[in-house]
From TrEMBL:
Cofactor annotation: NAD(+)
Lineage: Bacteria, Pseudomonadati, Pseudomonadota, Alphaproteobacteria, Hyphomicrobiales
Protein name (database record): UDP-glucose 4-epimerase
Pathway it works in: Carbohydrate metabolism; galactose metabolism
NAD-dependent epimerase/dehydratase domain location: 3-253
Length: 344
């Protein structure tokens, strides 16, 4: 059987593709290359250029491959962008996910893993780690667009022979320990990537968005999870669904929060470089603190993270960023077998 990975040319999806191939699965990728890169897709995966909302490309993929499961990463993932352009987020994350779910059910595919987000929680009344049972208070169109997709999945699974696992990712960072994949997003807004780029001189400064949050040092607190642990959870979710598992919604984080200032310190330590920091106002749509209670994922999926260290996450992100700097300093040549061939 074959797994369809939507968004497999993106940051997290490209790691998932490698992980599935490592496990001996056949993999098909569907990606519109809006924010992803063709060269990021492992050459052993079959690549389709297209949109998850396009029924004709989906029909072709389902006709040409024996797909038994869909892992759906394709989407837009930048909180402030969603505040500025909400309808684009409801289109790409909600309407097109609806089209994909419908096409999946129509052809009788029963297993679906969905990229949801900690942004569905918003700011909670307590600073304790958040469980899946918490009241959901998404603060941005991004969070709402993903919550609506969770709701569609819940209703679709109740009505059809179809099951899903929605994984609520906390803040994903880091890169493949074997150096095959990493975050290559252009104009990235994610803190660890932005800080690594600044340490390498690709940016002039890092903005700290908000110093007056009700947290220990006044800056935003997040639960940073290594991308390799996250894709492991997806592998376990697939196994669970193939074993007949009922629908599940699970947190993917470590249960430990770090402030923006703590992250910047980690980047200084790892890189051995200092850089300019600019204290800026809060960013619209941001919650003060979001930390996972990951107990349910451990219980249901036997998920045991093996990369849970901020230092380790930052080191792998920095190594990938350094690799990108070296890669970009060469002339980029033609693509061959889906991988970028670098001249020189
Ligand atoms: N990065 C994080 O910290 C984080 C946290 C929580 C949830 N997520 C979710 O995980 C998923 C992957 O995020 P990422 O960080 O890898 O982002 P990314 O932008 O690197 O990857 C998204 C991929 O999907 C593709 N894509 C977007 N819209 C598409 C469409 N309509 N049809 C086909 N392809 C499309 C893009 O070209 C890209 O390759 C997203 O759904 C995101 O919301 C990410
Ligand atoms: O240049 C920056 C970038 C970020 N931050 C701060 O760092 C923290 C993390 O911000 P990120 O932009 O790295 O991540 P978000 O928490 O906004 O959101 C990320 O994680 C969420 C889940 O918590 C979503 O799923 C989303 O896809 C993903 O962008 C926040 O307090 C933010 O204000 C800065 O101070 N400066």
């Amino acid at each position: 059987m074959t797994v369809l990975v939507t968004g497999g040319a993106g940051y997290i999806g490209s790691h998932m593709v490698w992980s599935l191939l490592d496990a001996g699965e056949r993999v098909v990728v569907l990606d519109s290359l809006t924010t992803g890169f063709r060269w990021a897709v492992a050459p052993e995966a079959r690549f389709y250029f297209g949109d998850v909302g396009d029924r004709s490309v989906l029909a072709r993929i389902f006709a040409e491959n024996e797909i038994d499961a869909v892992v759906h990463f394709a989407g837009s993932a930048v909180v402030p962008e969603s505040v500025a352009n909400p309808l684009a987020y409801y289109d790409n994350n909600t309407a097109r996910t609806r089209a994909l779910i419908a096409a999946t059910i129509d052809v009788g595919i029963r297993h679906f893993v969905f990229s949801s987000t900690a942004a569905v929680y918003g700011t909670q009344d307590t600073s304790d780690p958040v469980t899946e049972a918490a009241t959901l208070r998404p603060q941005s169109p991004y969070g709402r667009s993903k919550l609506m997709s969770e709701m569609m999945l819940e209703d679709a699974a109740a009505a059809h022979d179809f099951s899903y696992v929605a994984l609520r990712y906390f803040n994903v960072a880091g890169a493949d320990p074997l150096g095959r994949a990493g975050q290559s997003t252009l104009g990235a807004t994610h803190l660890i990537k932005v800080a690594c780029e600044t340490a390498l001189g690709k940016r002039r400064k890092v903005d700290v968005f908000g110093t007056d949050y009700p947290t220990a040092d006044g800056t935003g607190v997040r639960d940073y999870i290594h991308v390799s642990d996250l894709v492991e959870a997806h592998g376990s979710a697939l196994e669970y669904l193939r074993g007949g598992g009922e629908p599940l919604v699970l947190n993917c984080g470590y249960g430990e929060g770090f402030s923006v200032l703590q992250v910047l310190d980690a980047v200084r330590r790892v890189s051995g470089r200092d850089f300019r920091v600019n204290y800026a106002p809060r960013r619209p749509g941001d919650a003060a603190q979001v930390v996972a209670d990951p107990s349910l994922a451990r219980l249901k999926l036997d998920w045991v993270p093996t990369h849970a260290s901020l230092e380790h996450i930052v080191q792998s992100a920095f190594d990938w960023e350094s690799y990108l700097s070296r890669k970009n300093s060469f002339d980029e040549g033609p693509e061959e077998n889906g991988r970028l061939v670098v001249n020189g």
